[in-house]
Structures are given as structure tokens and as C-alpha cells.
Write a structure and sequence with these properties.
Blueprint lengths: L7 H4 L3 E4 L17 H7 L2 H11 L3 E5 L12 H7 L9 H11 L3 E7 L7 H7 L10 H18 L5 E5 L14 H8 L7 E4 L26 E2 L2 E2 L24 E5 L35 H13 L3 E6 L9 H13 L2
Parallel strand pairs: 1-2, 1-9, 2-3, 3-4, 4-5, 8-9
Antiparallel strand pairs: 6-7
């Protein structure tokens, strides 16, 4: 039986994800910088890598960009299609990937799989059209060229991709999607890169891969209840051992759980989330406090590892690249328990 490209997740303790979307989230101190290059230059790489090491995480998911048309890494394809100004001059993503690999950890890059919510300029550059009945072939061709450039530059430093937004693009759930284009682009620099596409996953009551050939479940989660995933937005709890249907053997069980802020520092809970507890705003200059106990995080990690899978914890980050002290303390304690 063929082994998943994400098989290394089962051997690690857990992973970390941060939503640093250029020009970045609110800062810990001072004014938020709105200029992409000034914001990226402000990012304290050494401090961030030290915080990541302290957490004990074995892999990192880092955002190249999301839905505002800015990216924290240069890309000649986008420069050619849209003109300069959308990508930072500093290659922050490559610097982080190098640092993560140097400490023996794995690196996963984050991008959306579509640009539906972005500006008209980005729509025009990538050939996006609101008429999804066309199949968006030109968009798929241009956008995967954009992905492939990152893949080639990162090369073997890139262990995987986490592509968001498959829940908002109907073509991704039809025969019109060219998953081969996406997979080839994602693996242009490393044929062993593990790939996941996010359709909302566990928070939407979904537990299967989006496309054939996906290596691990995106595993998006909104909330835990006593160390178990709230499956969908009702009271049902996910139990991987008895859940049906099970993902294919080549697609690993994986959960992605926010454990302090709701994906990004300063974010609040939307009404439709039906949150099981109130949102507590952070104190000035502090990150949101951890939402769960170490015991509950350990329970979740061990349950997924027992299924041969892994868990990634999304943690808040300031614009300067600094993580929350209380969250780091908690993750370091968890890492010590997982030895």
C-alpha cells in the first residue's frame, strides 16, 4: 500500500500554524504598518524562529498570502500579470523555511486555491471570472503557474501545502477542476510535498479529502469540547476511531485547531459560529489567552496519533512576528508530555 506523503506527521508531536497575512495582523506595540515592504521588513525572524523552537512543534504552516492581494514573498508571475507592488521585496517565506529546516522541522506553505474575494486587479491578472460555468480554465492555468514559482524556489525546503478556499469555489467540487494542474504546481520543486485542500472540513461536518490524491485532511476546526473536536456547528463530537467514512489510507487524519485567538489576533467569534464560550478580548500588548487546558490538547493529539495522523495548532501572532507567551508556555509543556 502506497504511503502518504504526509506520513512524517505521525512521527512528530504536533505542528503550529500562524496567520501572518501581509501586511500583517495588529502589532504588539505602536501603529500597524500598512505598507507591505515596511511590514515585512519589521518581521523579527530571529525572534519568531526562537518562539517556534520553544513551542516544541515539529512543523510550521505559514501564510504566503490570503485574500487581500498581497504576498510576503516575491513572485515574477504575479509581477508579470499584475505589475509590481503585490509581493514584498524581502523573501520572508524563504527565510522562514530555511530557518525551520535548519532546526530539523518541516515547513508547509499556505495559499488560497482561488481569488474570489480579492480585488478587480487580482481578478484581471489571474483571469478570474464571476461566471463559474466556464470552468475557469485560464484562471487555473495562470494561478498554478504562480504556485509553481513558489514551489520551485522553496524546493526541498517545502514539505507541503495547505490550500484554503475550496469551500467557496463550486468548480472545486466538479469535474471542471484540474486537480492535476494544482498537484503538479504544488510539487514542482519537491515531488514529495504533501498537499491538502480545505473545504471547511470538520467545522462544516466534512471528513473526506476534497480531491483524489490529497495527502492529508485539511482538518479545519473551530472549537474543542473537553478535548474533542466539535464536528459541524452542533453538539456532535468527532471520534476518529469510529467515524465514517474513513479517509483513504494515503490521506492522513489531520486536525487544525485555533487555541488562543480565532485564527488571527484581535478577531472575534461570528454569530454563525455558535461558539460554546464567550470571546474574551486580550489585554493591551498581550495575545489572547489559551482557550484549552494542556490535558485537553494532549487528549486530542494522542487520539489523532493513534489513527496515524497529526494535529496542528493555530496560534496568534503579532505584526512584529512575536507569539503569545502563555500559548508558548502551554505548547512547550505539551511537547514535554509527548516525548
Amino acid at each position: 500500500m502506497k504511503q502518504s506523503r504526509a506520513a512524517w506527521m505521525r512521527d512528530g508531536k504536533f505542528g503550529m500554524m500562524v496567520h501572518w497575512i501581509p501586511p500583517g495582523p495588529p502589532p504588539q506595540y505602536g501603529r500597524r504598518l500598512k505598507d507591505i515592504n515596511k511590514a515585512v521588513d519589521r518581521f523579527d525572524l530571529d525572534r519568531f524562529l526562537a518562539d517556534f523552537r520553544r513551542s516544541g512543534a515539529d512543523w510550521l504552516i505559514f501564510t504566503i498570502g490570503q485574500n487581500n492581494g498581497y504576498y510576503s514573498s516575491p513572485n515574477s508571475v504575479l509581477d508579470r500579470l499584475a505589475g509590481p507592488g503585490h509581493c514584498s521585496n524581502r523573501d520572508l517565506v524563504l527565510e522562514i523555511a530555511k530557518g525551520v529546516k535548519k532546526m530539523g522541522a518541516r515547513f508547509i506553505a499556505y495559499l488560497p486555491c482561488e481569488v474570489k474575494g480579492q480585488s478587480d486587479a487580482i481578478h484581471q491578472a489571474f483571469g478570474w471570472t464571476t461566471d463559474e460555468g466556464t470552468g475557469q480554465e485560464e484562471f487555473q492555468r495562470r494561478y498554478t503557474e504562480f504556485i509553481a514559482e513558489y514551489s520551485r524556489r522553496l524546493g526541498k525546503r517545502l514539505d507541503g501545502w495547505w490550500f484554503d478556499g475550496a469551500y467557496t469555489w463550486s468548480i472545486f467540487h466538479s469535474s471542471k477542476i484540474s486537480s492535476k494542474l494544482y498537484m503538479n504546481a504544488a510539487r514542482a520543486g519537491n515531488p514529495d510535498a504533501a498537499v491538502a485542500f480545505n473545504d471547511g472540513s470538520f467545522c462544516c461536518g466534512l471528513g473526506k479529502p476534497v480531491v483524489r490524491g490529497q495527502d492529508y485532511l485539511s482538518g479545519e476546526v473551530e472549537f474543542l469540547i473537553n478535548g474533542r473536536i466539535r464536528y459541524g456547528r452542533k453538539k456532535r463530537l468527532l471520534r476518529p476511531t469510529t467515524h465514517t467514512p474513513q479517509p483513504p489510507r494515503t490521506c492522513l487524519w489531520h486536525a487544525l485547531v485555533p487555541i488562543d485567538c480565532m485564527w488571527g489576533h484581535g478577531a472575534t467569534y461570528a454569530d454563525w459560529m455558535n461558539a460554546p464560550f464567550p470571546c474574551v478580548p486580550p489585554k493591551p500588548h498581550e495575545m489572547e489567552a489559551p482557550l484549552y487546558t494542556v490535558e485537553h490538547l494532549e487528549k486530542l493529539v494522542r487520539e489523532f496519533k493513534a489513527m496515524g495522523g497529526g494535529v496542528t495548532f493555530n496560534v496568534g501572532i503579532f505584526q512584529e512576528g512575536i507569539l503569545g507567551t502563555k500559548t508558548l508556555d502551554q505548547l512547550a509543556q505539551l511537547a514535554g508530555r509527548m516525548v
